[in-house]
Amino acid sequence: MDRFMRVAGVAEINPGKAKFIHLDGIGIAVFNAGGAFYALEDCCAKDGASLSAGLLVGTVVECPNDGARFYLPTGECIDPLTLRSVTSYRVRIEGD
């Protein structure tokens, strides 16, 4: 995805929460980590679970099924048992 699309207003995603978005056949989780917004592929690299339903701690999301952890800014997996990262998407905020 090389273009920006409006997916939500800032107030639609509370701090510490995520919103699932379906764009162009891809499931994307948009996270509000203390006012900073990040978007990741909404599919755990380990078991395919929805990351938007995961536990958000700072800038890390934990898979609700297997506990695999992913770094929001890059999608990098920080769980030593899961080697594959998830796709990270650029986020741009205009207004609110």
Question: How would you portray this structure in words?
Answer:
There is one protein chain. The protein is mainly β and 96 residues long. Helix content is 0%, strand content 33%. The model has no long low-confidence stretch (mean pLDDT 89).
List keywords for this structure.
single chain, 96 residues, mainly beta, four-stranded antiparallel beta sheet, three-stranded antiparallel beta sheet, 33% strand, globular
Protein topology:
Blueprint: E1 17-23, E2 26-33, E3 36-41, E4 55-57, E5 60-62, E6 69-71, E7 88-89
Antiparallel strand pairs: 1-2, 2-3, 3-7, 4-5, 5-6
SS class: mainly beta
Number of helices: 0
Rg result: 12 Å
- What does the main sheet amount to? 4 strands, antiparallel
Uncertain residue ranges: none
How many E strands?
A: 7
Molecular shape? globular
Distance N terminus to C terminus? 22 Å
Helix content: under 10%
Query: What order do the SSEs take from the amino end to the carboxyl end, as H and E?
Result: EEEEEEE
Strand portion, in percent? Answer: 25-35%
* Strand neighbour order, sheet with most strands: 1-2-3-7
Q: What integer is the average pLDDT?
A: 89
Describe, in short, the structure shown:
Helices cover 0% and strands 33% of the residues. With 96 residues, the protein is mostly beta strands. The strands form two sheets. Strands 1-2-3-7 form a four-stranded antiparallel β-sheet, with no helix packed on it. The chain has a three-stranded antiparallel β-sheet with strand order 4-5-6, with no helix packed on it.
